[in-house]
Each structure stands twice: as structure tokens, then as C-alpha cells.
Amino acid sequence: MLGEMVIDGMEVPEDGPESDRIGELLVRTAGGDEAAFASLYDSLSPRVFGLILRVLVDRAQSEEVLQEVFLEIWQSAGAFAPNKGQGRSWVLTMAHRRAVDRVRSAQSAGERDVRVGMRELNTPVAGVEEQVELRLDSRRVTRALGTLPEPQREAITLAYYGGYSQSEIAALVGAPLGTIKTRMRDGLSRLRTEMGVMS
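The line above is the sequence of ECF RNA polymerase sigma factor SigK; the predicted C-alpha cells follow.
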């Protein structure tokens, strides 16, 4: 586990009394302690919201995802293992995954809307062919991403959809920077191969 995390370009110490306190609050939350949960929310919600907002950009969606994250924390705090990691990392990783899931969901919904819209068009309009080609390329990339092992897919998704640097990704997923670089290099190489053979 790394000694510090990078959030919105700032290094935040992971070790120390506050980190121990977050872990303790999670354990108490798992036992149904509402006061501990309220304290956890007060302590972490600004950081969690900043992370989500960085991924989603949209403030209203970020507020929705923030509520989803804390609902998930309340429901699954028992899954936190204090001996396996820091509480803050556990919460921020959960928040980041939720935000990335929202981005993926929005992209899928957008692609569905385009497909439905294209079927409803009776007359070709200038520029439609170009938009269709872009959407087809987007679907090819999505399918190609689906063929990658989860660690490679996660690193590439965080970089290209989340806008994170390799150092930030390493902090978020709790892996060494060299491992993230290897995952991205291998994943991009495999993506190029997949894109080259797909029709």
C-alpha cells in the first residue's frame, strides 16, 4: 500500500491518525453505528465529491453519485478489512469506480440514443454518415476494451475516460507505478491488435 494518494493533483498522506480514525469509523459503521457513519460522511464527503466531480464534471450527477457511494458504504462497510488497507483508500476507490461506471453508463445510453435516432431518420442529412462512422469506431473500441484483462482495462479506462495520470492511477488502485505502466503498454498493444482485426 502506498504511503500517500494523489487526489486532484494534490498528494494526501494516507498514514497517520486520520487514516486510523477513518478505518475505525468504517468498522463502527459496519456494526450499524449511525453516529460513526455521520462522522465518516462529514470527514470524507468533500474529498469523495472532489474525486467524483473530476471524473464526471457535471455537478448534479456528481452529487447523485456521492449519495450512491455513501449508501453503498452504509450497506457494505462490513466488507472493509482494516488489516488489508487504509479506510480512505477503500472509500475513494469505491467512489472512483462508481464515477467511472456512471461515465460508461452515460456512453452506452448515448450510443443507444444515436442508434434509435438513426433508425428513425428517413432522409439522409449532411454529416450523418460521419457521425455514424464515429459511433461505429466508439463501439469497436468498447468491444476491444472488453477483451482486455480487468487490470489493463481498468488502467486504460481511468487514463482515457477518467483523465488520470499514471501516478494517480497507481495511487487509486494501490499498485506500483511500474505495474501501471506495464498494464497500459500491454493493454494498448492488445487494443491495437484487436482494432486491426475487427471489421
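Note on the example: The chain has a mean pLDDT of 78. Residues 87-120 form the longest helix (34 residues).
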